[in-house]
TrEMBL record:
It comes from Pontibacter virosus. This is DUF2911 family protein. Keywords: Signal. Pfam families: DUF2911. Residues 1-25 form the signal peptide.
Length: 175
């Protein structure tokens, strides 16, 4: 009887180890659009951009995967967020301190960039009534191809880079 219990316990332990190693192996697989963060300082304001970074994977991004003239979540998965701990001027318009979801309406010659008050949401749940600020920016050819979507915070603002395009957004300290 003791041998049977010991055998059962040993078998259950072996099954537990086998199952947990399968779960660990699944976690090792890289995400298609891994989370990323860009941080920096503009004047006295600390800026943080949290986003999921999709890849080009041989696709044409602008005008095809991301259509012109339609709201795009500016990343993948959950909504991209922009956080500033102080009020800032974005393309000459004031944006109060806070965390905002960030969307864009890409165009061939001009983009509309949207800071939305509803920060914690899935990226496709955009509600225009919640917009805190809309500004315009001009896209330009990137110096090099960027396989993954990347955001940078520079002393002059933030830059979205993906495929062969970049969109600089001028940000200054609010007065």
């Amino acid at each position: 009887m003791k041998n049977l219990r010991f055998t059962n316990v040993l078998a259950m332990l072996f099954m537990g180890i086998l199952m947990s190693s399968t779960v660990w192996a699944q976690d090792a697989k890289p995400k298609a659009s891994p989370p990323a963060t860009a941080t920096g300082k503009i004047g006295d304001a600390n800026i943080t951009i949290n986003y999921s970074s999709p890849s080009v994977k041989g696709r044409t991004i602008w005008g095809e995967l991301v259509p012109y003239g339609e709201v795009w979540r500016a990343g993948a998965n959950e909504a991209t967020t922009v956080t500033t701990d102080r009020a800032v001027m974005v393309e000459g318009q004031e944006l109060p301190a806070g965390t905002y979801s960030f969307y864009a309406i890409p165009g061939e010659d001009e983009w509309t960039l949207i800071f939305n008050k509803t920060a914690k949401q899935w990226g496709t749940q955009y509600d225009e009534k919640q917009d805190a600020l809309r500004v315009k920016a001009k896209p330009r050819q990137a110096a090099s191809m960027s396989e993954r979507l990347v955001y940078d915070v520079t002393g002059e603002g933030m830059v979205l880079r993906w495929e062969n395009l970049e969109v600089p957004v001028k940000i200054q300290a609010a007065k």
